[in-house]
């Protein structure tokens, strides 16, 4: 389909985890961005952002993956990702990877400047004021380490959730890592389990029915611990709530989709 020149274009960075484990997040993000008036595409040549290789110190393969992403998203007005960890990789680590290569550094820096995490884009660039979502549940929100520490992401998801009718947001008593940390949970499983156990205790203390977040890695880790404890608390990505794409019943017993939580 040819581009509509009157609308800015967005390349959606789906991320590996979303593509493999929870495609509904990508469809929800697509729906939200199109509703905001943008023309959205999913570049077929996109690959992993390179974060796992980067975390292992494999600079050669990280640069190759970064170059592929840069090329795949080169012609879009914006890159948007429903994951702060992958977005931080593109926005901050790509330029660092190519500091000794002026050609790729320039391209990496240009992409970084037009790359946004989904809720930041919806709130600060698209200025969404009419989410028109309905979610009659008590929820709490998990802020990711990358979102807080690298993207300074805190206000945007809450500004959007405040537009969701009937939703009651209960803040967690403290902010801490969920224990996922990319390859951290594989290297240090016992420490990861302790961290996610502490996180789950905090979630349970809020008496929330649902926990939300903006990174699927964290949500999968939290979900796994909740299920081992046989907890009824459900877990969703914030995009699924904003786009009315969950399987929880709304008022009157209707469902917005037939998809399970994480």
Question: Strands, helices and their partners?
Answer:
Blueprint: E1 9-12, H1 16-21, H2 23-35, E2 39-41, H3 51-55, H4 59-72, E3 78-81, H5 84-97, H6 102-113, E4 115-117, H7 118-125, E5 138-142, H8 145-149, H9 155-161, E6 168-169, H10 184-187, H11 189-205, E7 210-213, H12 216-228, E8 234-237, H13 238-242
Parallel strand pairs: 1-2, 1-3, 3-4, 5-6, 5-7, 7-8
Helix pairs in contact: 5-6, 7-9, 11-12
What does this structure look like?
- The protein has 262 residues and is α/β, with parallel strands linked by helices.
- The chain has two domains: 9-124, no CATH class; 132-253, Rossmann fold.
- 47% of the residues lie in helices and 11% in strands.
- The protein contains 13 helices and eight strands.
- The strands form two sheets. A four-stranded parallel beta sheet has the order 2-1-3-4, with helices on both faces.
- Helix 12 (216-228) links the parallel strand 7 (210-213) and strand 8 (234-237).
- The model is unreliable at 251-260 (pLDDT under 50).
